Amino acid sequence: AGIGKCVALDLARRNARTILACRSRVRGQAAVEEIRAATGNPAVLLRLLDTSSLASVRAFAQAVLREEKRLDVLVNNAGVTGLPFTITPEGLEQTFATNYLGPFLLTNLLLG
Fold it and tell me: Which key words are in the record (predicted)?
């Protein structure tokens, strides 16, 4: 939804192979189908990613490195605000993990 969906729509309109990294399979698949229908680009894919979980970030990065020949653009757009103080199963504060640690780790894992 929001900025991430708009960016994905624009990339797909440019005929780019576009991976939507979403926490929710249902919402992510709906976005994929909407973008495919709007652009005619069948190369819009869904992969699950929860940036508050470093294990999820590592699994996502491994899959991208294994499945994709190259990665030209990475848009880190995940973010939360206003959540009550919560500690993730990995012992991290959830907002900090989601907004900073997860995207930082993802970027570094995907660098060549």
Answer: Oxidoreductase
Span 67-111, pLDDT tens digits: 999 999 999 998 889 989 999 999 999 999 999 999 999 999 999
How many C-alpha atoms does 56 have within 13 Å on its Cβ side?
A: 19
Residue whose entry in the numeric block shows the structure tokens 């991290």: 92
Sketch out the chain's domains with CATH numbers: 3-111 (3.40.50.720)
CB atoms within 10 A of CB 55: 11
Distances (CA, A) of 97 to 25, 33, 63, 81: 21, 29, 21, 12
Q: Which of 13-17, 63-67, 96-100, 108-112 has the lowest mean pLDDT?
A: 108-112
